[in-house]
Amino acid sequence: MAARQELEALFLSHLGAIERIAGAICRRHGMAGDDAADFGSWVKLKLVENDYAVLGKFRGESSLGTYLTVVIAMLARDYRVQRWGRWRPSAAARRRGRIAVQLETLVYRDGHRLDQAAEVLRTRGETALSDRDLAAMFAALPVRGPMRPLEVGAEPLTAIPAPEVVDDGDRDRVDETLFTALDRLPPEERAILRMRYWEGMSIADIARGLGMPQKPLYRRIERALAELRRHVEASGVSRHQAMALIGELDQ
Predict the structure, then answer these.
(1) What is the domain partition of the chain in residue ranges?
(2) 46-50, 86-90, 114-118: segment of lowest average pLDDT
(3) Which CATH architecture has domain 149-251?
(4) CA-CA distance, 24 to 30, in Å (whole number)?
(5) How many Å apart are CA 189 and CA 224, to the nearest integer?
(6) Contact 162/244 with Cβ under 8 angstroms?
(7) What is the pLDDT of residues 110-143, one digit of tens each?
(8) Which of 13, 49, 90, 168 lies 20 to 30 Å from 250 when distance is taken between CA atoms?
């Protein structure tokens, strides 16, 4: 019992350090807000489990701060696998190098908007590329399904189609058709549609990110959506399914 009390006292005396280390790891991996808070709580739970068994394994071969840093980094890996599954970058991202892999990971695995991912990379000192350069790099990567729900406005993207238009049996087929059709668009149009409909960015933010005038973007998006719909319909998806899937309002 004394050992448990000693470990509990050790945990409480280092609680501030544990929170700082967890916070630093969250920033390194682009976790923020509720995700960061959830991870911090999960780390504390793991350290407390089984009468502070993790702390009981500390043998003094390094400082306790170093030991906690290693332990929490390993817990972060387990947390991410448990929460989002194992992540493997696409072959296209690997061919384009480390920045492309990081960009793809931040957007598709971690759920960042493209402009947020770009800022994370610059803040980490990984790149000095502009939003426009990173958007062009991202546009060349294949479309991947998110590892957590993405939102457009107040609704998840997957909730856009009405159930009577795209039923559950057709969901995967229609999604695959959409992603294939999206890959057929020119890279800049692809990036614009991703920003607008997958990442929920405003027209003004897209214009700033890509370094282009705002007003012509409205017409450009309209033309890109029409082209996307043509590609989808040519693959055998009905007109109503296509319009529901990409969120067009006028039938």
Answers:
(1) 2-84, 88-142, 149-251
(2) 86-90
(3) Orthogonal Bundle (1.10)
(4) 10
(5) 6
(6) yes
(7) 767 788 888 888 888 889 998 888 988 988 888 7
(8) 168
Q: How many CA atoms lie within 13 A of 135 on its CB side?
A: 27
Label each residue of 18-42 as H, E or C.
HHHHHHHHHHHCCCCHHHHHHHHHH
> For residues 191 and 210, is the Cβ–Cβ distance under 8 A?
yes
Full DSSP string of 167-202: -HHHHHHHHHHHHHHHHTS-HHHHHHHIIIIIS---
Q: Tell me, what amino acid is at 22? A: A
pLDDT of the residue at 19: 92
Mean pLDDT across the chain: 75
pTM, entire model: 0.42
User: Phi/psi at 44 (nearest 5 deg)?
Assistant: -60, -40
* Token pair 């039938």 in the structure block, residue: 251
Give the class (CATH, top level) of 2-84: mainly alpha
